[in-house]
Amino acid sequence: MFVRSRAKLLVSVIALTLLVLIVVACAAPATPPPAATSAPAATSAPAPAATKPPAPTSAPTQAAGPKRGGKVTWAVWQSPITLNNLLGTQTVMGDILSLVQEGMSEVGPDGARIPVLAKEIPTVQNGGVSADGKTITWKLKEGLVYSDGKPVTCADFQFTLQATMTPGVGVVSTTGYSDIDKVECPDPNTVVLKFKNFYAPYLALFSEDLIPKHAAGDPKDMAKWDFNRKPLGTGPFKVDEWQADSFITLSRNPNYREKDKPYLDQIVVRIVPSSEVAMQLLSSGEVDIMWNNTEADFPLLEKMAGVKTSEPLQIGGERLFLNMAENKDPSDPKKPHPILSDVKVRQAIEYGINKQRIIEKLLFGKAKPGTNEINAGFFQCANFKPRGFDVAQAKKLLDETGWVPGSDGIRVSKGSKTAPDGTRLRLKYATTSGNKLREDSQVLIVEDMKAIGVELYIENAPSSVVIGSWDAGSPRRHGNFDIIMYTTNASIDPHSQMMNLFYSKNIPSEANKGGVNYTRFNDPKVDELLEKAGSDPDQNKRRDLYCQVVAMGQETTNMIYLYQRLKIDSYRDRLLGWVPNAWDSPAWNAELWSLK
Predict the structure, then answer these.
(1) What is the DSSP string of 92-126?
(2) pLDDT above 90 (res 123)
(3) How much is the CA Rg of the chain, to the nearest whole Å?
(4) Lower CB density within 10 Å: C or N end of the chain?
(5) Range with top average pLDDT, 81-90, 143-152, 290-299, 481-490
(6) Residue 63 scores a pLDDT above 60
(7) What is the rounded CA–CA span in Å between residue 333 and residue 326?
(8) What number of H helices and E strands is found in the chain?
């Protein structure tokens, strides 16, 4: 959703001040954690400055103040399925919504929480956090209204919780919200969250998905809401028109809370069929911004006059999702995959992939080999050692599990515990079409697998299909896939990501359409560790718990981490005010954008 990438170096502002909460809540001395990237979860961080970083001072026109007016065109090469954050997980959806919707707070480039709709970040010291952490009180800024002029009130937060927790409508994640007992409204501008149990990443809740009660509808009819195509929010821009697979037009929000902002009149999101088309439009000047570049674009970008890049290092990264349950539509998670249910087969596949070759050949050396789910930030599992490229070990594991080379070199089962004798070791390998880096990566990985006797055949589809909803028949949700490849990243606090990908109750099904545990990972011990991590106010202990899950995930090998990417976007230098933020959308401060 998350959306989600990481900077090369972030100061642990929130991570450090979290211990203040622990000291007050637990009445025990605490030592601040070592500086790393910050984590907003369970913090009592003193409220940072309520304003966002100013536009770069290097631009000479900025000295006299940004120029008002003008249109910016932003090329994206994925088409959003929905603009309802509760129903979608596409990065492109979240990035577009950042122009329209806001929440209580957001994360700045330095990793610190910045109040947005809230007056300040709740702490024990300012009375916003109870001693047991189960009551969080937010105070809204005065006079907040949506783009239609209707007021923002506590009732909208109550409605958002109600919508999020409505069963059977396809909400992608209820993590954290399910821990809230109720939202109380002592007055329209005060939002009191009453938790059943302490929930460590409480600051992440209501950070980006506020739904106006008056603009939505019955939560039971969420899939049919007009809001899904024309969301309403408090952000700097409002949606005027969405032509599917073509464009989304947004104009200045006349009721934006900051006077004289945004500076731009209009942003047009142009939906193009591929990243190559986006690059051509950027080069010709037909668009001002290109969304979600890859490292493979650097040689061309460096030759483009008047083009700049934004490139902080992300957490998480590109990976393979291995389906451990049967490949059917829909899959029964209790029935094992005939090939990939064998842990040694999954481990052999990882040993057989030359990650460094992908990085050197396709990413120009500008990435790192993938390691694990938490490879940056305060919660980083820094001492984790992934499997290296080892063809001999890959073959040995396959031999041990009853997969022997056939006449053409591709292995067939002979004594396998999971597949009938004679079964060919053949797997479908899918990713989002229109992404040259992924498609080229597939070619290399197919070659690697052939060398160890595994046959992969490619069957790609548009992002709207591969990363779609249960009701739209998405293969990753229904489980009718073998291997799917794409990037996903944790937020500044990894709890939601870890719950989504490893918690057994998040396995998708007809009854749990919004589940995102696509590999069908199911381990009661992991469930226990994750539940404990989400309820412990000591972030050092939480980090240890998450890293235990990371280690168990590595042993299980439900995912194979290929490489840790940069978060790359490019834009023409006529656009001023761009501030890179690895923790948020490229448009996180779009109200400050202006044109030369």
Answers:
(1) HHHHHHTTT---SEEE-TTS-EEESSBSS---TTT
(2) no
(3) 24
(4) C
(5) 143-152
(6) no
(7) 7
(8) 14, 22
Q: Among the listed ranges 17-26, 72-81, 409-418, 426-435, which one has the minimum average pLDDT value?
A: 17-26
Amino acid at 131: A
What pLDDT was estimated at residue 17? 32
CA distances in angstroms from 301 to 268, 296, 434, listed in the order given: 22, 9, 19
Phi-psi region of 287 (alpha: psi -120 to 50; beta: other; left: phi over 0): beta
Please state, as a whole number, how many other Cβ atoms lie within 10 Å of the Cβ of residue 553.
Answer: 21
Is residue 53 scored above 80 in pLDDT? no
- Here the tokens at position 476 are 């990753």
Q: Which pLDDT score is estimated for 21?
A: 32
Q: Tokens 């249910």, residue?
A: 341
Q: Which helix (H) or strand (E) holds 167?
A: none
pLDDT at 62: 46
Q: What is the DSSP letter of 221?
A: G
d(CA 413, CA 99): 53
Rounded to an integer, what distance in angstroms lies between the CA atom of residue 272 and that of residue 276? 9
| 570: nearest Cα among 275, 316, 366 | 275
Evaluate the CA torsion angle 203, 204, 207, 209 in order and state its sign.
negative
3-class DSSP state for residue 396?
helix
Two tokens, residue 20: 């203040």
Cβ-based burial of 29 (10 A; exposed 0-12, middle 13-18, buried ≥19): exposed
Give the list of residues 6+ apart from residue 544 with CB closer than 8 angstroms, or none: none
Q: Which two tokens stand for residue 256?
A: 């934006």
Nearest alpha-carbon partner for 40 in 587, 458, 542? 542
CA distance 257 to 236: 8
Cα separation, 180 vs 372, in Å, equals 30
Q: What is the pLDDT of residue 64?
A: 66
Cβ density class 126-142: b for 16+ within 10 Å, e for less: eebbbeebbbbbbbbbe
pLDDT in tens, 234-254: 999 999 999 999 999 999 999
Cα 580 to Cα 587: distance, rounded to the nearest angstrom: 9
CA angle centred on 577, ends 296 and 367, rounded to 5°: 25
State which amino acid sits at residue 493: D
Tell me 235's DSSP state.
S
User: Which positions ≥6 away from 560 have C-beta within 8 Å?
Assistant: 319, 320, 322, 346, 349, 350, 353, 370
Q: How many angstroms separate the Cα of 587 from the Cα of each of 72, 113, 240, 289, 584?
A: 12, 17, 18, 10, 8
Q: Quote the tokens at residue 90.
A: 């596409």
Helix, coil or strand: residue 595: strand
Question: What is the total residue count of the chain?
Answer: 596
Closest CA to 264 of 240, 289, 304, 237: 237
Please write the tens of the pLDDT for every residue from 470-511: 999 999 999 999 999 999 988 888 998 999 999 999 999 999
pTM score, whole prediction = 0.67
Closest Cα partner for 69 from 260, 222, 211, 207? Answer: 260
Q: What is the mean pLDDT of the chain?
A: 88
Q: To which residue do tokens 């929000």 refer?
A: 253
- What's the start-to-end Cα distance of the chain, in Å? 32
Q: Give the pLDDT score at 23.
A: 30
Q: What is the largest CA-CA distance in the chain?
A: 76
Q: Say if CB 384 and CB 547 are below 8 A apart.
A: yes
